[in-house]
Amino acid sequence: MTNNYCLLNTAAQNKDTAFSQQERADARLEGLLPPTVDSLETQMQRVLEHLDNKPDDIEKYIYLQELADRNETLFFATLMSDPVTFIPLVYDPTIAEACRKYGHLYRRPKGMYLTRQMKGRLKEVLRNWPQKEVRFICVSSGGRILGLGDIGANGAPIPVGKLQLYTACAAVPPQGLLPIHLDIGTGNDKLREDPLYTGLRETKLGQQQLDELLDEFVAAVEDVFPGCCIHFEDWEGNDAIRYLQRYQQRALVYNDDIQGTASVVLAGLLTALETTGGELADQRVLFAGAGSAGTGIANMLEEAMTQEGADRDEARKAITLFDKEGLLTADRDDLNPSQQVYARKMSSEKDLQKVVEQVKPTMLIGVSTQGGLFSEGVVKAMSELNERPVIFALSNPTENAECTAKQAYEWSDGKALFAAGVQFGEEKIGNETRYPGQANNFYIFPAVSLAIYAARPTRVDDRLFIEAARLCAKQVSKADREKGKLYPSQADIVNTELAIATGLVRYLFKHDLAGVKKPEDIDGWMQSLLYQPRYVSSA
Q1: Theoretical Cys-Cys bridge with 38: which of 17, 93, 304, 444, CB 3.0 to 4.6 Å?
Q2: 91 has catalytic annotation
Q3: Among the three residues 222, 251, 280, which one is the final residue of a domain in this structure?
Q4: Interatomic CA distance for residues 329 and 316, integer angstroms
Q5: What are the residues facing 114 on neighbouring strands?
Q6: Is 326 within a domain?
């Protein structure tokens, strides 16, 4: 392919119809483009018209991903122009459908696809990536995608979407972002039998083999891309916990499903406390769901409570976990080490409403992936116990939510402070309007990543995510809290994330965790690092 065609097919450099006449002459593009020279704004107008003509959200998702492959600047300019509209199209909830159908929707490769068959050669294969300065890798095995379970290589869109949100939500420059699907096989028989499945048609690796593969992967990343942060995404529950614990002290890693989820939930709870009054350390929290998300949130809540002065044992006793087998009790023999910490010396109980009546929680958090688990009886029980019950139904996609916003408000007579993992619309309750929150990790992980991008720490831990939660809660105004809002507006997401990230950078400098020299003007420095979706003149 000649250089001029390479330019038109390089998404980071392509301007398409926005190349000036001089640029066309200099790059030998004359005759290869329509004669009109468009502005970026005119190109965006054309994109919006294309999107308006698409029949459904999955077709809009496909169009936007093809736009990203063709013209990166135009793609991000579109997303950042209206994040409320476009973030749900490139990520949750639309991406769940894209994952279900990935093998049938596949157009062209995005990022890298590493497999168990490359064991012993991962360093060599990573060097095939053309960008040599990679600052972040988002890696998934497809083991637990958005409540869809093990979908193997069909989970490949997830790291792509996550990294696109780094840029769309926090203006992290996209050039140093690398999405990776690590194919370890799948236990999903239906997928392995699908002739259009793009992954290995093998069962999953055993634990020891997987550990060896991950050790090699982390070491290879550190060697090929020094200083790169590894973002683990959508790993199977026990693996998610184990690998975070395995690498947290020896590499720059984080797990958004555990730490990002916990942080955004903590942010919503801190905002709710501004309405209900009281201290975090005095709350009683019941989790419906005890997987990696549930235990991760519980761990962060416990740590945040102790930071506010609570005794650690008392903080732990204030947290109760419930899963599909019922209450986590000390006599159960099916609990992993992360769950055993929260096992209660109580009688076994499989009825969630009875557990609510017995434990008397002030906050109920659903991470169960069981749609409808929060029944009318459960919500009414919470309302009888609390003047303003805090109810978070966080499972996604939408059909997995433990209850809807409408149900939470109607069954609590409008008293509930409610958030979900997906965005529900506003609800009219009597003469008042309630605005449900979306406890979406995109309030946290892009800001954390921007802070890491700027300050270059060598390690991060839960304390950074607790600080992110507190900074996020501060972004919610009193006027918004009075409307029942628990999270900042999505309309101004970049400035919200920038405020959080700047606070995190100050935290890293304060605690001597940054790997760069502290600038005199942190605010101005942070502004200078942001990606701007604008065409740069080659003149």
Answers
A1: 17
A2: yes
A3: 251
A4: 14
A5: 182
A6: yes
Place of tokens 């499989």: 350
Q: How far apart are CA 69 and CA 48, in angstroms?
A: 17
Query: What whole-number distance in Å separates Cα of residue 304 and Cα of residue 298?
Result: 10
Domain holding 231: CATH number?
3.40.50.10380
What angle (nearest 5°) sits at the alpha carbon of residue 526, between those of residues 524 and 528?
Answer: 70
Report helix, strand or coil for 495. Answer: helix
Length of the chain: 539
Structure tokens at 55: 């029949």
Residue 238 confidence (pLDDT): 80
DSSP single-letter state for residue 530: S
The letter for the amino acid at 34 is: P
Residue 240 has a pLDDT of 87
- For Cα atoms 250, 240, 353, give the angle at the middle one, nearest 5 degrees: 135
* pLDDT computed for residue 57 by the predictor: 96
Note the pLDDT of residue 251.
97
Concatenated DSSP letters for 420-460?
ESSPPPPEEETTEEE--EE--GGGTHHHHHHHHHHH--S--
Boundaries of domain holding 146: 94-251
40 domain residue, yes or no: yes
pLDDT of residue 293: 85
Which residue type is seen at 271?
T
Are 224 and 304 members of one domain? no
Residue 317 host element (H or E): helix 312-317
Structural domain includes residue 300: yes
pLDDT value at residue 75: 98
Q: What's the predicted TM-score (pTM) here?
A: 0.92
Catalytic residue among 91, 102, 243, 443: 91
Any catalytic annotation for residue 247? Answer: no
In terms of domains, do 44 and 187 share one? no
Domain final position from 402, 417, 440 = 440
Active-site residue, selected from the candidate residues 60, 162, 415, 485:
162
Q: Walk across the sheet containing 326-327 and list its strands.
A: 326-327, 319-323, 285-288, 363-366, 390-393, 417-420, 437-438
Question: CA torsion sign, 307 to 312 to 315 to 320?
Answer: positive
β-pair partners for 392: 365, 419
What is the residue whose two structure tokens read 């700027």? 454
Among 220, 221, 207, which residue's Cα sits nearest to residue 176? 221
d(CA 499, CA 170): 10
In the numeric block, which tokens belong to residue 518?
């502290």
